[in-house]
User: Which sequence fits this backbone?
């Protein structure tokens, strides 16, 4: 456990944005001290269990790679000026670059330079985890302004045996059944594609109060982190009843839900029910994107959807220096959190009931559950919700089923079921 | 049995409208002499079995209430003028009002007055079956013209032990399987929402001639009447293979079919097939509306749809004095009857056949069933209907299945099946 | 066997059109020397097994009719001019006309004359296989120009015991499972409705090279030919896993696929997948059209779809002299062939695989199957195809399933599966 135990009031969008801003400068990769520093900051908000897995550990079909750390990197021109400077933005170095210290002309350097010719002011984000090479990322404008050289080229990095680091935060529920929320923590200074998801996950975790499900939050590097977690938890994945990868949670676009491989798992249905009332987009499952790729691999086939605003690779700022602190807004973070809480609220609140008075309608008025003055043509949602719960509570329909068929908000049906329970008209099925 | 046995020619829209007009002035409620008088009039057209169920009888979760009767009611001003007068419209009294005889100011009276401020010329319809109170319904215009009073306020009603009255008309079929048509008979002077359905049901009943199914027509007060019938027929409801509540059958709107709780029962499919060729609307099931609420309660789950023109609570005149004899038209009544006859015709005519020559097409021409001059590009519907019946008569598809898949009218397929039966090419399956 | 054994390069649209043109003048019917001459020409391109079935043979519910042959026919006016002349177009005689030699006035002749008043320049196509009569087809313009007569009327035909002729060409596959392609060969000078389908079938047959399925091509008269074949192959139809009737394959309209009776057989799914990327139309099954009527009769219920361009009876030139050599184009023939080859390619290439590394994604990069420089936002179709094949290869999804769910082209998935097979990451299921 690291960090203090703290659960508190709902984090505002502004507070979530502050967290994003604190995490933004850290140079994360799939291993290394940037990840540890990130988890330290998260640990100030949530108690975390941090796991360190040694280089060389076999995890499913993969092997934990060497740990990468970097202190400095630059391209200096003849006048000693840093034309490209890691200290200004950690995006300038290709992730997992091997160390280099050399003098070379622009022509020699060019195969190691990455730009975005169609977005000439932006610096791209590139990595090379499994092929030993080095490189710099810079704006096309910077490249265009560079002379023939020679240049002093330095990457002061290390690639050595070490560890892969990830962390978990678990909120115990009344049941062992788990809802799992997974965020990747391997992207350097990209605000939406990484940090926004972390911030919303932290905010959800802090808002939970004796939930029905046990909630497991995973903060791990993408792909290799999820694979490592799955490898170390193969026997326990059966507990995960619902899962979500959370990413791109703070951009101004509309909410997007990507279905699980199962296509209509409870998480899919809950998300669609919640999003129906909002501007949103639904994507079919595909084995590409975030770590749902791993959780939904056919051997595991976990019911993992993915919640984002603009989805993976769907905005021009994606994987560029344009994904910065201005691109993420407090309002968007708050909106994602609200939707996420509603979705988990549906999963936590879903139950199946049995109508104990199933022949005809029970007389609700006698029990104080119905307006007594008949003949009025308006119908209150609360009464309609009771009639729907009674009508479909034959032991085969859960409240989410009722919500889908009635087109009533889940919360109204949850309240109706509580009123009917209190009146002894329904009972929960085993 | 009350009334003469009479079956006769198809009732015209004008004749149905006459029946509506005769029933219109009677002051119906869920019990009382208004219901009896209504059934007397219906009994002039159909033999009825009338049932009287004593006050206090337990029926499912409910109890038969006291019987309500009313002789007179008014609000008289100081000059002795009846400002509100039950003799002008029975809508003026809240149904099930307890007796009152008092003098009071307008302010004292006001909590007992019901108006429609947004439809200031119309009188609303209100009831209070299960809460002992009293009240008057009047137009907002009338209320606005009333001075401070004092007023003489009289409701000459009785609420005493008595009976709940309902009636059945059964047309025996060649089979014990039943088609049940249910109409409510508890609304006072409302022409569309009550009387139009009664008139169309009477017309259907009179048009039946040795049907396959046994037809059961139920004329009963809404909710408590259906509940009473269900309570007294729990062991027999299994005979009901198809059911319809019939209401709002005479307004100028398009036909509306509301699906059963089962969603795709034969009644649903038959109705949709018939309505496909007409301007119409289909509504999903909901546990609100007419007595399909009771028939489709989960303990019974009977295949009851609802046939209306503009549906329950769907028109501005609904439950107001605007639902009068002009709102209902002979043409609309005739149109509803025609659709209803076609729907029941599909149910009566549906059968499953087995193609006795299922390998390749049988040579229809040799049997006089096919035009002999080939090569023409136009195809007659009758021949297409025979090919469809032959193709799908594998013992697993009924004619309604064939109608749905072929998009041919049921009647054409029925004729084709008859021709193929006569030719020995198909036989009916058990 | 007739004709030389020859398989060769893909026939071009021009070559197919040449074949159509050679077949065009022959006077085909459901029996007779026109069919034999047609099969002789086809036999120059493909080895054929020709079957002769005697008149009177009972075939399912039918009987092989007498053989019809015709040498000449005309209507001569008083000046000896042939007003209607079989030698100019074989459409001028109603198929299966009995012989006639008589002199008669126009009024006497008129019941035997067939025109298209709304297409006055075109000659209709008519037959009378099973009712003994005779007749001429002519343009309305010709009829309008005819005087009162008398006319010399001659049809020099014979209708005698003989044979029904059909032919098969079989391309043995690595499996006994068959794909069957059926074309009708009974229409006289109609280019699209008959000959285009024959030409495309010939081209497909010539292009096959050690296919997985055994391919059976049937060239038979419509209806009675298919019925005869089915009657003689009842025990073998179980081998037919996929079937297509091929007709109207050369007109300029868009491709049309008509579903099989089963509605979503593999042939239906393969055809829809291929056509999705093209302008096309999909029709539901109906028991009308070409010989899918027989193959899809309920006793056989074979998975036969129908591939055409403009469908059966769907163009003004249908069954008229307008369906001529200009109506069929080389480009349309080539396009139909390409689509047909893709459809059969899907069926031949479809397989089900098992991911041997199903827990998480296998590390493709290590095996040279994945681009090594991460962080780029564009994804190559080939890599996506591998991820999809891996994700759905749980033994329950074939490549066609993957194609439908991923919306990737079948060919890309086929290549991905081959790469994964080579890498030992998947194996074929039994």
Assistant:
């Amino acid at each position: 456990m690291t960090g203090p135990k703290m659960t508190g009031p709902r984090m505002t969008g502004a507070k979530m944005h502050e967290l994003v801003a604190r995490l933004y400068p850290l140079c994360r990769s799939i291993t290394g001290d940037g990840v540890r520093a990130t988890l330290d900051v998260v640990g100030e908000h949530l108690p975390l269990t941090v796991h360190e897995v040694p280089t060389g550990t076999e995890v499913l079909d993969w092997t934990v790679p060497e740990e990468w750390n970097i202190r400095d990197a630059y391209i200096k021109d003849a006048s000693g000026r840093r034309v490209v400077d890691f200290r200004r933005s950690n995006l300038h170095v290709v992730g997992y670059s091997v160390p280099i210290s050399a003098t070379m002309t622009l022509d020699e350097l060019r195969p190691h330079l990455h730009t975005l010719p169609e977005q000439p002011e932006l610096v791209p984000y590139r990595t090379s985890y499994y092929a030993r090479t080095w490189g710099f990322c810079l704006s096309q404008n910077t490249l265009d302004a560079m002379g023939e050289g020679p240049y002093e080229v330095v990457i002061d990095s290390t690639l050595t045996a070490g560890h892969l680091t990830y962390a978990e935060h678990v909120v115990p529920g009344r049941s062992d059944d788990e809802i799992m929320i997974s965020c990747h923590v391997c992207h350097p200074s990209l605000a939406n594609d990484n940090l926004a998801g972390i911030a919303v996950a932290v905010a959800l975790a802090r808002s939970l109060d004796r939930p029905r499900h046990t909630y497991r939050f995973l903060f791990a590097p993408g792909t290799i982190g999820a694979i490592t977690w799955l490898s170390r938890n193969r026997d326990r994945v059966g507990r995960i009843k619902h899962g979500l990868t959370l990413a791109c949670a703070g951009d101004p676009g509309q909410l997007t839900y990507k279905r699980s491989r199962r296509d209509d798992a409870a998480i899919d249905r809950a998300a669609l029910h919640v999003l129906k009332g909002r501007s949103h987009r639904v994507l079919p499952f595909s084995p590409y994107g975030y770590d749902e790729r791993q959780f939904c691999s056919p051997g595991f086939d976990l019911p993992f959807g993915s919640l984002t605003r603009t989805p993976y690779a769907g905005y021009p700022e994606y994987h560029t220096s344009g994904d910065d602190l201005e691109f993420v807004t407090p309002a968007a973070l708050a909106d994602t959190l609200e939707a996420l809480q509603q979705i988990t609220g549906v999963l936590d609140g879903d139950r199946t009931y049995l109508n104990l008075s199933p022949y005809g309608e029970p007389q609700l008025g006698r029990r104080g559950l119905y307006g007594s003055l008949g003949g009025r043509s308006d119908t209150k949602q609360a009464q309609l919700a009771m009639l729907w719960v009674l009508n479909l509570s034959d032991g085969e329909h859960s409240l989410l089923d009722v919500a889908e068929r009635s087109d009533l908000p889940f919360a109204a049906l949850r309240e109706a079921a509580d009123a009917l329970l209190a009146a002894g008209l329904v009972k929960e099925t085993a």
In short: The interface with chain C takes residues 355, 357-363, 365-366, 372-379, 384, 387-388, 390-394, 405-406 of chain B (CB under 8 Å). The first strand of chain B starts at residue 49 and ends at 54. The domain at 68-160 of chain B is CATH 3.50.30.90 (Glucose Oxidase; domain 1). Chain B has a mean pLDDT of 94.
